[in-house]
Amino acid sequence: MKMSPQGETPIWRRWGKSFRTGLRLWHDLLRFRQDRVVAGRYRIIRKLGSGSYGTAYLCRDIRSGRRCVLKRVYPLRGGRKRAALIYSMETAILRRLDHPALPAFYEQFRYGEHLCFTMEFMEGTSLDRLLFEENRMFSEKASLHLVLKLLAVVGYLHACGIVHRDISIANVLLHGNSIQLIDVGLSRELAGSHPDDYDPYDIDADDPSEKVLRRKIHVSSDFYAIGHLLLFLLYSTYTEKELTPGSETGEQSWEEELSLHPDTKKLLRRLLQTEQPYRNTGELRQEIKRLLPHLR
User: In which residues is ATP bound (predicted)?
Assistant: First the structure.
C-alpha cells in the first residue's frame, strides 16, 4: 500500500473522506429529486437554483395545494456550525418581514440532517429573464420608474434594520405592474454594524472591490447593487455606435456609451459611489421623482 509522507493524512483516509462526501451528495440528490415528497408534505416540482448558501426547490404543499419554495441550507464554507448560523439568521429575517413584495415565511424543519424551510413562491418573472431571454427593452424613464418601485421595498427593509446585500436582475421580479424582491440569504441585521463591516465567509482575499462593496453590511451595498441593476436596464436599449476619437480600443465607460440625461448620470455615479453616496432611500426616491418629468 502506498504510504503518505510523515505528518500528512494517510491516503486511504483521504480516499475514504472523498467517498463519504460523494455518497452524501448522491444521497442528497436522491432525497430531493423531482416528485419526491419531503417531510411528508412538500412534493418537489423542480429545482429552482443553487447558491453559495443552499439550494431552492419549487414544491407543492400536498396539504394546502399551494405552491411554495423549499430551501435547504448548506453553505459552501464554514461547515455545520456555519450552516446552523446562516439558517437561524435567514429564517429569523424572513419571520420579521411583512410586505407583499417579499416572500412570506411558512415553516422551518429538519429533514434528516438537512436544515430546511419553506416560503411563498413569488409568481413574477426575473429581470434577468426579461432582459436576456425575452429581449425586453427599458427606456431611461421606464428604468427609473422601475427603480423607484424597487426602492419602496428596499426602504421597507432598511426601516426594519435589514440590508439585502444581493439585489440583482436575478432577484428582482416583475409581476404585472408590481416589483418583487426575493432571496434574503445574504441579508443581515444593520444593528451594531460598522459601515465597513462584511461577513468574512462572503469575501476572499482576491475578490474584486466590486464584490466587497456589494457585501458590506451597510445600506450603501444595496445602493451600489441598484446602480448596477439600473445599468443593466439602461443597456437594454443600447446600440453600438462608431468609436469616438481616442477610444480606438473599443473600451468605453458607460458614461461614454449611454446617452442619458445629465442628472441620470449623476444619480448613477452616486449609486456606484464615484460621487457622494446616497444616505437613505428617501433621498434617492426624491431625486428620481424630480428627474422623471424631464424624461420622455
Answer: 71
